[in-house]
Amino acid sequence: QVQLVESGGGLVQAGGSLRLSCAASGRIFSINTMSWYRQAPGKQRELVATITTGGSTNYADSVKGRSTISRDNAKNTMYLEMNSLKPEDTAIYYCNVKMGPSYRLLAYWGQGTQVTVSS
């Protein structure tokens, strides 16, 4: 099976930085997109950032300008660098990978990593 493992979360003071990692292993094939989602307490899961096969990126307005999504295709790993962290960034961050032929993409999720930003 496919496994996605997030790492890099933790407790950080407001204004600090973190780099989250998502490593994919197992039956990896034809990665289409890799994304970061997050879910704060009492809120719906939201898309934070996406990087496509071609390397184009998209960011949620809430993190645009202070976050960078990147990937290392050889390692099947992607990263989310977050700077100037705010308490409202507190959430569980999830890795999402879409794989397979373009006519039938399959989505895989990691278990999440907790990011807590203190005031």
Brief sketch in words of this structure:
This protein is mainly β and 119 residues long. It has strands at 2-7, 10-13, 18-26, 31-39, 46-52, 57-59, 67-72, 77-82, 91-99, 106-109, 113-118.
Q: Describe it for me?
A:
The chain has strands at residues 2-7, 10-13, 18-26, 31-39, 46-52, 57-59, 67-72, 77-82, 91-99, 106-109, 113-118. It has 119 residues and is mostly beta strands. The strands form two sheets. Strands 2, 4, 5, 6, 9, 10 and 11 form a seven-stranded mixed beta sheet that branches. A four-stranded antiparallel beta sheet has the order 1-3-8-7, with no helix packed on it.
Helix fraction, binned, reads under 10%
Low-confidence stretches: none
Oligomer: single chain
Helix-strand pattern: EEEEEEEEEEE
Please summarize the sheet with the most strands. 7 strands, mixed
Mean pLDDT: 94
Distance between the termini: 40 Å
* Estimated share of beta-strand residues: over 45%
Number of strands: 11
- How many helices? 0
Strand pairing plus helix content: what structural class? mainly beta
What is the radius of gyration computed over CA atoms, rounded to a whole number of angstroms?
A: 14 Å
Principal-axis shape equals globular
